[in-house]
Amino acid sequence: MYAVFADPKTDFVFKRIFGAEGRKPLLIALLNHLLELDGERRILDVQHLSGDQHVGVPELKLSIVDVKCTDATGRRFVVEMQVLKVEGFEKRVVYNASKAYVMQLRNADEYPALCDVVGVTICNFNLWPERDECGRPRVPMLSRWRMQEQHSGERGLSQVQYVFLELPKYAAGDAPETLIDKWAYFFREAKNLNVVPPALSEGPFRDALEVARTATFSPGEWEAYERAKMAEQDARGALVVARQEGHREGHREGHREGLAEGKLQGKRDMLLRLLARAGIPLTEDERARVQQCADAATLDRWVDNVLGAKTADDVFS
């Protein structure tokens, strides 16, 4: 039996809801709510930008889902759904927002022409899991970040800002009341719903659910959605399988050269296999760097970095 609503965290459905020109009101509502904009500060219109980012490995390509747009003032938004937690994720978020800022410049442009950038990231994992002595998250489910002078607390240099919504921190159950809770509930539970619940029966939440209703999918769209879900499962399992292969390879090498060196060689071989699968070429110096690495933690970090990497520099960063 088919699900009533498709999972909005997948590439196909996320962009069906927020990336289509005819459904811009849904993207505008999401931005206004997550950025807590009201009154004259509200975003009234957006224009979609090209340049979606895709990972070159078919099994891993859905770890990053994004929609880029700009509003009437020129302010740019990079809206991302991060499905999997990978090492260096925070650095990649900073990189993407910074790139969106500097790429505005053209040969004839000057710095005053640069417009602000806001990185909006919805995380399907705890990015900041730490809790206080009362068991409450130290960083709330919706967090907003910008630069601050360390002595006075004065805020400034607001050209690049960040917003995060950590879905696992949702705690309102089946009765979300705030707009933020309703978005979190929508992203977390849409695929499990059989009917539109009262909490999501109005405004953009109802409309978003209607877009995600599988009965409205054509056969080709349903096939695209099924492929997206399969790719997500492959992405989750890819690193697990790779680590298992490395562990087994390590044991085999360990019998011949000693257990410690065998495990290291297994990790090196695993890394090279993942790079080959990702279509990321290595120079002779880079391949030698892998083979000469004798630190297990470094090799593990490089393996994790393959997820989402486009070049060898991304892996070795």
Query: Given the C-alpha coordinates, what overall shape results?
Result: globular
Order of helices and strands: HHEEEHEEEHHHHHHH
Helix content: 40-55%
How far is the N terminus from the C terminus?
45 Å
pLDDT averaged over residues:
85
Radius of gyration: 22 Å
Query: How would you characterize the largest beta sheet?
Result: 6 strands, mixed
Measured by DSSP, the beta-strand proportion falls in 5-15%
The largest sheet has its strands arranged as 1-2-3-4-6-5
Number of strands: 6
Whole-number total of structural domains? 2
Could you characterize the architecture of this molecule?
- Helix content is 43%, strand content 12%.
- The longest helix has 39 residues, at 219-257.
- It has 2 domains: 11-216, no CATH class; 225-316, no CATH class.
- The protein has 317 residues and is of the alpha/beta class.
- A hairpin with a 4-residue loop joins strand 2 and strand 3 (76-82).
Descriptors for this entry?
alpha/beta, 6 strands, 317 residues, 43% helix, 6-stranded mixed beta sheet
Task: Break the fold down into its secondary structure elements and pairings.
Blueprint: H1 11-18, H2 24-34, E1 46-49, E2 64-71, E3 76-82, H3 89-102, E4 117-123, E5 142-145, E6 160-166, H4 179-189, H5 203-212, H6 219-257, H7 259-278, H8 284-292, H9 296-305, H10 312-316
Parallel strand pairs: 3-4, 4-6
Antiparallel strand pairs: 1-2, 2-3, 5-6
Helix pairs in contact: 2-5, 6-7, 7-9
